[in-house]
């Protein structure tokens, strides 16, 4: 099951995606699923919600305030980070 690292506590065997991994997968899925506007996973999302210990949006607000990040700042991986994630996840050439 995919869970947010911010919203859960790490458990043995968990695998966490860094921002580059997450961005690369999101970009790939976005391209793969073009033309499918009604994509929904209610059962999976409900299961994920049962595991939440914290809310990512609230944690991000706290982190942003502590680090003086304003809402107009978008944090994206660099081209090098994205390229490394694409290679690490085996997404190149797909």
Rg from C-alpha positions?
A: 15 Å
Strand residue content: under 5%
Q: What's the main sheet like?
A: none
Structural class: mainly alpha
What does the overall shape look like? globular
Mean pLDDT: 78
Ends apart, CA distance between termini: 23 Å
Count the beta strands: 0
Quaternary organisation of the protein chains: single chain
Break the fold down into its secondary structure elements and pairings:
Blueprint: H1 19-32, H2 42-50, H3 56-66, H4 79-88
Helix pairs in contact: 1-4
Overview of this protein structure:
The chain has 94 residues and is mainly α. 47% of the residues lie in helices and 0% in strands. The protein has four helices and no strands. It has helices spanning 19-32, 42-50, 56-66, 79-88. α1 (19-32) crosses α4 (79-88). The longest helix is centred in the N-terminal third of the chain and has 14 residues, at 19-32. It is globular, with a radius of gyration of 15 Å. The two termini are 23 Å apart. 5% of the residues are buried. The model has no long low-confidence stretch (mean pLDDT 78).
Q: Main attributes?
A:
94 residues; mainly alpha; 4 helices
Brief sketch in words of this structure:
With 94 residues, the protein is mostly helical.
């Amino acid at each position: 099951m995919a869970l947010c690292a911010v919203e859960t506590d790490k458990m043995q065997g968990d695998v966490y995606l860094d921002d580059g991994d997450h961005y690369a997968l999101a970009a790939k899925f976005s391209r793969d699923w073009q033309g499918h506007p009604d994509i929904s996973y209610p059962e999976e999302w409900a299961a994920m919600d049962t595991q939440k210990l914290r809310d990512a949006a609230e944690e991000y607000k706290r982190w942003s305030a502590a680090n003086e990040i304003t809402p107009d700042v978008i944090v994206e991986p660099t081209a090098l980070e994205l390229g490394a994630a694409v290679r690490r996840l085996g997404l190149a050439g797909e």
